[in-house]
Amino acid sequence: MGRKRRFSKLLLFAAMVSTIGAGVLGSVPLPVKAAEEEETYTVRFEAYEGTCETESVTVPKGESIILPDATYEGHYLMNWIDAVKSENMTTFLSVGSAGWEYTPERDLWLYANWKPNPEPDVTVTYEARIGDTSYEELEEAFANAQAGDTITVLKDCEVSGTLEVTADNITLKSEDAGNPVTISREDGFAGKSYGMNTDTVLLAVKGGSLATQDIIFDGGAVLDGDFNNSGKTWNSPLIYVDGSYTMEIITYPQYIRAVSSLKQQKASESKRKKNIYYCGCCGRALFNAHYGTVFCKQRSFKTDSDCKDIEICKHDADTAVLAAIKKEAELYLDRDKLSRQAVKWNASLSVSDRISAIVKSMEAAQKGWFALYDRYADGKLEREFFLNEKKKYDADMERMEEELAALKQTQEAEESIQGGTKRKAEQAVAFLEEDELTEDMKEKLIEKVVVYPGNRIEILWRFREHLEN
């Protein structure tokens, strides 16, 4: 009886301990292992002399950043550079330009790679000038002309509107008196028309006075010697005059050259055979008769002219011209041989040697820069000193890069010249092998052949011009 009572008390005590323990332990949280901290990388940006609003960016491992932009007066940001150190050297690697995505793999600095802004490549062509002022269009020069001005035309011009003269004592002249300028209308200009409509004429002298020198309007209008200064219109649909217009008549050979150029161009476009023979008396092109001779047709109109003696057998003339071409080819080959020998004898340090020297200098400068950067990165140099040295390094590298680029252009030009010289020599040899005067020869080598009485001929060459081009 007593033993059962003691056993019941033990069970009751065990139950109480179990209940109390469960309540206490249930109200206290069990210890939990702390979560691992997330790994991140920080990218810092060094803009040197420039400004970058983003000083640094921190991102979780594996995530990308957008490379920021930066500014530096007179320069543009080419890219951002990472300096990767190894045991004996530092390698600079481009990671991208502003706006690119970049995924860092460590904490690092990125350095701005600045380049000077390029000079704008602007090519301006001018048609005329008044004094020291140049004008891109001839119409603009006319619009700005004041009394007493001289308008100098710099090249052949096409005008899109009427050239109007209202001031007095205006002079219009060609820059090169030996090669008269031709002023013509563009395709969109209104059609030729007589009368006083200044929307259709090429030149209108209204109340003022104009004098021209060595100028051809639309291929020869100034050659009309019957111009009546007192009238309202000229004997040309190109010009209207209500004032005073004085023209200087260009020489007939000048006119022949201009017209001949137009005819040759038209013949080339129509694939017709080129006529190279011209009269030495009147300058006109000779007529190719069906019986094998060429002669001047002026003898039919002017029986007392020396043109009646201008006639030559075309086969004999072609043979003589071919022989002269071969002689010119031989002379060219001799000159080319002497020229190449002179270049060889006078050659100093070759361009390739100078290129090699500059490349070595650039490599040495880069090694010095890497060593300087290592000292700066290790905290052994002040920032101001480092930036000053960097400016000197950048200036030296820019100078050497410009020299290197210029030398490479020279090298390419020399190689091109050497290749061109070889092709010219091959072309000259090809001319020596021809048995007859070809259309290609006439087109490329001969301006014209002038025939004089007694079957004497004079050849105006394009030989050297063709080989040079």
Structure, explained:
The protein is of the alpha/beta class. 37% of the residues lie in helices and 25% in strands. It is built from eight helices and 23 strands. It has helices at 2-26, 138-144, 252-269, 314-346, 351-377, 383-432, 439-445, 463-468, and strands spanning 40-46, 56-60, 65-66, 75-85, 90-96, 101-102, 108-116, 128-130, 133-135, 150-153, 157-159, 163-165, 170-174, 181-185, 203-213, 215-217, 239-247, 277-279, 287-288, 293-295, 311-313, 446-452, 456-461. The strands form six sheets. Strands 8, 9, 10, 12, 13, 15 and 17 form a seven-stranded mixed β-sheet that branches. α4 runs antiparallel to α6 and α5 runs antiparallel to α6. It is elongated. The termini are far apart.
